[in-house]
Amino acid sequence: MASTRLTIALMVFSMVNAVLFGVGLLTVLLTPALSSHAFTWIPIVVVLSLVLSPPIAWLMAPRLQARYWRLRDASVH
Q1: Mutual orientation of helices 2-30 and 38-60 as an angle, nearest 10°?
Q2: Where are the chain's structural domains?
Q3: Model's pTM, two decimal places?
Q4: Is residue 26 a contact partner of residue 75, using CB atoms and an 8 Å limit?
Q5: In a structure prediction context, what are the per-residue pLDDT tens digits for the chain, which is 77 residues long?
Q6: Could you count the other beta carbons within 10 Å of the beta carbon of residue 21?
Q7: Residue 60: HSE in the Cβ half-sphere, 13 Å Cα cutoff
Q8: Residue 22 near residue 42, CB atoms below 8 Å
Q9: Residue 45 and residue 20: Cα distance in Å, rounded?
């Protein structure tokens, strides 16, 4: 089970990373107080997106398995 979860998490990692980076970059560039110090904030956004992406991808992975949805649907009915 962990190998399937790890495989899914690795596939989802890059997408989660891209979304976090994009949201962080837009926040920095659209906020005047942050954009004036963009050379400091953009590397921080890069590091934060790389640090936060693995745990988020790991938490998302079980929900992307069909088994999760079958069990969830069975418990609702």
Answers
A1: 150
A2: 2-72
A3: 0.80
A4: no
A5: 568 889 999 999 999 999 999 999 999 999 999 999 999 999 999 999 999 999 999 999 988 887 766 766 777 76
A6: 17
A7: 17
A8: no
A9: 8
